[in-house]
Amino acid sequence: MLLRFDQILTISFTLFAVIDILGSIPVLISLKEKIGEINAGKATLASGFLMILFLLVGEPFLKLMSVDVKSFAVAGSIVIFVIGLEMILGIEFFKNDNDTKTGSLVPIAFPLIAGSGTLTTIMSLKADFNDINIAAGIVVNLVIIYVVLRCLTYIERILGKAGLMVVRKFFGVILLAIAVKIFKSNIGNL
């Protein structure tokens, strides 16, 4: 049960790749435009809470609800697909309720940051690593998430309107592809 730097590093890189906070920047900027402002602290804490909670009780909770991990992943992929469609087509599925409190939580904390891919990965990591190192890897990623969310306005200024539009459309297609991949890899054995 000791903290091991090599394990924390492996877990951190794995979660960083799955969370893909840098690839989510166009989505986050798009959502920020819709809801007004993203509360970086609240979104980071909420996603961190979900990840730690899932680390501790994820699989038993899903079993209690009679939901398997694959069904959970398919549901998450559908939400990601809809967000991608919004980005590409410029239409709105997630209605703006002008409440920055909920906007920072849904769809940002869940499913964008702590989505089905992230939560499933956390459960998978439990097979090879102990919980304390997984929790440390989660914390490393939460720091990165917080910094990115706090710097969105600065990133938006650097890219400009035209740059944002191009990046948003491009990453919308990437999100669609990720959603299809998650869907396809989990639908076969349902």
UniProtKB/TrEMBL annotation:
The chain crosses the membrane at residues 12-31, 43-62, 74-94, 106-126, 132-152, 164-183. Its main location: membrane. The keyword Membrane applies. It is a multi-pass membrane protein. The keyword Membrane applies. GO terms for cellular component: plasma membrane. It is found in: Cell membrane. It comes from the Bacteria. Keywords: Cell membrane, Membrane, Transmembrane, Transmembrane helix. Belongs to the UPF0056 (MarC) family. This is UPF0056 membrane protein. It comes from Chitinophaga skermanii.
